[in-house]
Design brief:
Layout: E1 6-11, H1 15-26, E2 31-35, H2 42-46, H3 49-63, H4 65-71, H5 83-107, E3 111-121, E4 124-129, E5 135-145, H6 187-190
Parallel strand pairs: 1-2, 1-5, 2-3
Antiparallel strand pairs: 3-4, 4-5
Length: 191
């Protein structure tokens, strides 16, 4: 058997990449996770499932929706809910989830590498580091591609990040829109 830097190299740190890396590490394999962004977790934690569900829960809490059924109409709530009210809670939950992911990977001795990966051959990946200039090649017996998806921007639609946005931009808005139309019926759009 050839001598590799790692038994398994996982490209992408979303839920699939995390689980693959941790499972391999539990089988005493030398494992590294490569993430091209400076933060872990993929879409699920950063712009997808966790933020969308946290926003929903924040609205229910701040509006007093649940408390009204328990305490009655006399229960008072904040009258003007702002985007910063919602994003404060969302950012807190995202950071907590990122800490959990980082701790799980570290506890299982999975090396974290911030870099963009490109294949040289079936067992070699070139890593262009995010936080520094330069690159290095690493080898692995098995390479798992768990890069997930990215929101696409159709060139015929004038995305401006304010009125016409992709799902990633929702958490960057500084106001709550009075109305909203969602185009697309994928998981992120539905949430």
């Amino acid at each position: 058997m050839a001598d590799y830097d790692y038994d398994m190299l996982v490209i992408g740190s979303g839920p699939a990449g995390q689980r693959a890396a941790i499972q391999a590490a539990k089988l005493n394999k030398r494992v590294a996770v490569v993430e091209r962004k400076t933060i872990l977790g993929g879409v699920c934690i950063n712009t997808g499932t966790i933020p969308s569900k946290t926003l929903r829960e924040a609205v229910l809490h701040l509006s007093g929706y649940r408390e009204h059924s328990l305490y009655g109409e006399s229960y008072t709530v904040k009258q003007n809910i702002t985007m910063s009210d919602l994003l404060y809670r969302t950012d807190h939950v995202i950071q907590h989830e990122l800490d959990i992911v980082r701790h799980q990977l570290q506890r299982n001795c999975v090396e974290l590498i911030s870099a963009e990966a490109s294949f040289i051959d079936a067992h070699t990946v070139r890593l262009k580091h995010v936080d520094q200039q330069g690159w290095r090649d690493v080898t692995a017996n098995a390479i798992v591609i768990a890069t997930g998806t990215i929101a696409t921007k159709d060139e015929r639609i004038p995305f401006d990040g304010k009125r016409i946005v992709i799902s990633d931009d929702i958490l960057k808005l500084n106001h709550l829109p009075r109305s909203l139309a969602v185009i697309g019926a994928g998981v992120i759009g539905l949430e």
